[in-house]
Amino acid sequence: MLSLKDFIYEQDILPCNNDEVWGMLESVTDGAVKIHEKVIRAGLSNILGTAGIENVQGEQQQKLDVIANDIFIEAVRKSELFASAASEENKEIIKFKDSKNAPFVIAFDPLDGSSNIDVNVSIGTIFSVYKRPEDSTETSDRDYFQVGDNQILAGYVIYGTSTMLVMSTGNGVNGFTLNPDNNEFYLSHRDMIIPKTGRVYSVNEGNYDSFSQGLKDYISYCKSDDNDREAAYSARYIGSMVADLHRNLLKGGIFMYPATTSAPNGKLRLLYECHPMAFVIENAGGKASSGEQRILDIQTSGLHQRIPIFLGSESMMDTLMDFISKKETSQ
Ligand code: P6P
What we know:
Blueprint: H1 4-10, H2 18-39, E1 50-54, E2 60-62, H3 63-79, E3 82-87, E4 94-95, E5 104-112, E6 123-131, E7 153-159, E8 163-168, E9 174-179, E10 184-189, E11 200-202, H4 213-223, E12 234-235, H5 241-251, E13 254-257, H6 270-283, E14 287-289, E15 309-312, H7 314-330
Parallel strand pairs: 3-5, 11-12, 11-13
Antiparallel strand pairs: 1-2, 3-4, 5-6, 6-7, 7-8, 8-9, 9-10, 13-15, 14-15
Helix pairs in contact: 1-2, 2-3, 4-7
The structure holds 6-O-phosphono-alpha-D-fructofuranose.
Residues 112-113, 115, 204, 239-241, 267 line the site of 6-O-phosphono-alpha-D-fructofuranose.
């Protein structure tokens, strides 16, 4: 089995040198191993439930959210490759004084899907790395306000039946499974490609009444027998983006979190959820859109800005976009 480190040093098409890519991934996986060790013991160590505080999103922070955030911040700080970090759990960026001139910045959601922690459903860490602009003297939010195509490394860790790192440096997608016996990640899914089509659609239909007519028509198409599969698709929605997206990446499918009444700009955050997931899906041969434009063309303008997101298998995305654009032109 090829270790993550050996895999990285085999690569000759990287956005920066092998030492830097390995250093970044070593910090991500160090953090992931520590989070894994907490997650698998969550029920035993009184770290379930809410921390009794709200995060910057106004959401109830779970105890494990706070623990995972502290673990991940410390892991990336120690690498001394990042001038700062942006976390879902922190309103402002976290500046690292010992590496203030480092060339990179990292954005992350330390524990996505945390509402599922207490019910033993897969959760994940999502991360995204940018090179700081050449004219960046002191690290600031501006280092993060880039188009998604500028990411040099992005991916996620899924804490599921096994713990896996799925990542891309812009040249394909590869998956690495944690061996808990030595806490090393090994290549288990080389050159991951999302099937061009699929029969799984993932959306919270509890928000159906607030969907656009085009999206409602697409969901009816998924449920009908006269779609491209001549049989109804399967609805699969775990409520944990990393888990839903990981299944759709492997099996084919489409994940949708559109604008809703309670989330008029969508719920998911551009910087540390939509950009990295779009980067992975596009590098695996899929598509990712806000409904109006390609996600990776969007330039971040706020650390916690939200956007609608639709991403997955190419042909399913093309069909969805046809339904959405047809309705928009007819209105
Ligand atoms: P809803 C988890 O809280 C999360 O951020 C994503 O992981 C998930 O896809 C989404 O929210 C679920 O949101 O509104 O369907 O419960």
